Amino acid sequence: MSDETRIALLGATGMIGRQVMEKAVGRRGQRLIAIARREVPLPRGARMEMLLSDPDYWPDAIAAARADVAVIALGTTIRAVGGDRDAFRAVDHDLVMTCARAAREAGVRHLIAVSSVGAQRASKSFYLSVKGEVEDALARLHFGRLDILRPGLLRGRREGPLRVGERLAMIASPVADLCLHGSLRKYRSIRASTVAEAILGLAGIKPDGRFVHEHDAILRATRR
């Protein structure tokens, strides 16, 4: 019987998902099973599986993965959906919750979900209020262990062209981060590759409970 921890990855085609696949290469004791709607090139040296399916059938794929840990790194932006709040909610709430429920029903004991710094159901920001609502709903599914990651601005290679404002924000963020101290440290930017390392560091951790990881806690998780 294998001692490998099987990890089902939802959101493999996104910035963080791609980095999780990269960082999993050569990592012992973990087996990655990515679930996606379209094929993406696998990193060189990857020893993993990729299950391709329409999102309507992702619950079946999640069950087939026989995972110990599920990682949900799904998400879009208001801009990406042309300002359509319903379209944004369909991904960041509905699809996330569908995957989480399927993982719970498949017997997954440990869920790792990527949220956002500032997530709060009562937030005046629609984006952050949806993220907060999802965090609350995930807690009610009663996984043995739930890890919620709340990164700030993600730095790294994105698919598609960047707007001028986005490009400038990514360039300026390392300098702006130096001004964020104390309780403001959680708003510091972070590389997507660092978040990916934290996810793999947390995967398979045994103690039960619900844990929220902001900037400094994400950095600590990379050392696990």
Labels describing this entry:
single chain, 224 residues, alpha/beta, Rossmann fold, seven-stranded parallel beta sheet, two-stranded parallel ribbon, 7 helices
Explained architecture:
The chain has 224 residues and is α/β, with parallel strands linked by helices. It has one domain (5-221): Rossmann fold. The chain contains seven helices and nine strands, in the order E-H-E-E-H-E-H-E-H-E-E-H-E-H-E-H. It has helices at 15-24, 58-65, 85-105, 126-139, 164-177, 192-202, 215-221, and strands spanning 5-10, 30-36, 48-52, 69-72, 110-114, 145-149, 154-155, 190-191, 209-213. The strands form two sheets. Strands 3-2-1-4-5-6-9 form a seven-stranded parallel sheet, sandwiched between helices. Strand 7, helix 5 and strand 8 form a beta-alpha-beta unit. The longest helix is centred in the middle third of the chain and has 21 residues, at 85-105. The two termini are 25 Å apart.
Distance N to C terminus = 25 Å
Question: Helix/strand-derived class?
Answer: alpha/beta
Lateral strand order in the biggest sheet? 3-2-1-4-5-6-9
Number of domains: 1
Q: Report the portion of residues in β strands.
A: 15-25%
Fourth CATH level, the homologous superfamily: NAD(P)-binding Rossmann-like Domain
Q: Count the E strands.
A: 9
CATH topology: Rossmann fold
**What Rg, in angstroms, do the CA atoms define?**
17 Å
Roughly what is the average pLDDT, rounded to an integer? 92
Q: Helical stretch count?
A: 7
Q: What is the name of the CATH architecture?
A: 3-Layer(aba) Sandwich
- Give the helices and strands as they follow along the chain: EHEEHEHEHEEHEHEH
Under CATH at level 1, the class stands as: Alpha Beta
Low-confidence stretches: none
Largest sheet: 7 strands, parallel
Name the overall outline.
globular
